[in-house]
Design goal:
Elements (H helix, E strand, L loop, with lengths): L3 E6 L8 E6 L11 E6 L3 E6 L5 E7 L4 E10 L4 E13 L1 E6 L5 E6 L4 E8 L2 E2 L4 E4 L16 E6 L5 E6 L4 E8 L3 E2 L5 E4 L6 E6 L5 E6 L4 E8 L2 E9 L10 E7 L5 E7 L3 E7 L5 E8 L5 E6 L5 E6 L4 E8 L4 E2 L4 E4 L3 E5 L1
Antiparallel strand pairs: 1-2, 1-31, 2-3, 4-5, 5-6, 6-7, 8-9, 9-10, 10-11, 10-12, 13-14, 14-15, 15-16, 15-17, 18-19, 19-20, 20-21, 22-23, 23-24, 24-25, 26-27, 27-28, 28-29, 28-30
């Protein structure tokens, strides 16, 4: 079965904004990935599949920066997307989204407004208007970036019991109890506090359901966490940039290799990505920091099969691809570059 990957081109529709769908076949041999279809859209920023991969959701921004979420049916085994519906997120700078484990709800993080929008889903489509949940908490010391709450990521804990919201403005990760068919509670049951001023952005969980890694945008660090019974605890904090780098940089994306032996994080400003070996005790050991070959590496991901790593560059309007040797845990030299205006997100 042919595999595909998707890039978000965060430009206005008439200037090439939309979802690019590529074939992941023969990427090692071909000079350029083959684009198989394109869906024009206004400033898309993040994308996610439903858990059963029958539906595809995108958040983006209208011309006035107000957020929207769009739903698509996945057709031809992922080769095409069929538009179903679009709805306002009731927030500004909608930047991340996730479906509930039962595909009954969609949750969207709205960065500027510091809120999360909950959408009930029916047959993959929005069922009514969304419910807005506001993040609350003491803001961090890094002004003006932490002037008020800034929801940046939504996720579910591996046991499916909690929706998590990563908030850059408050240095927090909020956990909200989730009930299938009902949604989340209005107030969180737990608030994890990061080191003040770190500005958490994104999080990934290991397959063991216990260990998690929180990427901190402002601190340019990764915090290693343990999840247990609705709580998070930090056990380590590791830098993503060299100790002697003193210019401005901010971390952006964090991803596992398919076998979870390598953890990769991008740095905007240092224009690189840091590669960490995940040790047996789940701590991180820096292997190398690699130039990303572009400006502002906003997102990155491993392509289907795990033999290629794609890095999205927002300001140089390109997605670049590096070969990856899973056995050696080594990222090779730049393979190829593909145009993508305002390249923001890559998923497969």
């Amino acid at each position: 079965m042919e595999k595909y990957f998707y890039c978000a081109a965060n430009a206005i529709e008439e200037n090439g904004g939309g979802i690019q769908i590529f074939s992941a076949e023969n990427m090692e041999e071909n000079e350029f990935p083959l684009m198989v279809s394109f869906v024009p859209m206004e400033r898309p920023s993040y994308m996610v599949f439903s858990r059963d991969r029958r539906f595809f959701y995108v958040v983006g921004a209208e011309k006035d920066r107000s957020g929207y979420a769009a739903a698509f049916a996945v057709e031809e085994e992922g080769r095409k997307l069929h538009f179903l519906a679009k709805v306002a997120t009731k927030g500004i700078s909608s930047c991340h989204l996730i479906t509930s484990p039962d595909d009954g709800f969609l949750y969207c993080a709205n960065y500027v407004t510091g809120t999360c929008t909950e959408f009930k889903l029916k047959d993959g489509v929005f069922d009514g208007e969304g419910r807005v949940i506001e993040d609350k908490g003491e803001t961090g010391p890094a002004k003006p970036r932490q002037d008020h709450p800034h929801a940046h990521c939504t996720f579910f804990t591996p046991d499916g019991k909690y929706l998590g919201i990563v908030d850059l403005g408050t240095d927090s990760v909020f956990l909200y109890p989730y009930t299938p068919g009902k949604g989340i509670e209005s107030t969180p049951s737990f608030e994890y506090k990061e080191i003040p001023g770190e500005g958490p952005r994104h999080i990934v969980f290991a397959k063991d359901g216990i260990h998690a890694y929180l990427l901190n945008e402002l601190g340019n660090t990764v915090s290693s966490l343990i999840y247990k019974e609705g709580t998070l605890e930090r056990i380590a904090n590791t830098s993503t940039i060299p100790a002697d780098f003193k210019r401005f940089s901010k971390a952006s994306a964090i991803r596992f290799s398919p076998d979870e032996r390598l953890l990769v994080a991008t740095n905007r400003g240092h224009e690189s990505f840091a590669c960490f070996e995940v040790k047996e005790d789940h701590t991180l050991s820096l292997r190398e920091i690699i130039p990303s070959c572009g400006s502002s590496p906003r997102d990155m991901n491993f392509l289907p099969g795990g033999k290629m790593l794609g890095v999205c560059h927002e300001f140089t309007n390109q997605t670049v691809f590096f070969p990856y040797d899973m056995e050696k845990m080594e990222v090779g030299a730049l393979k190829t570059v593909r145009d993508c205006p305002g390249s923001l997100c890559l998923i497969s």
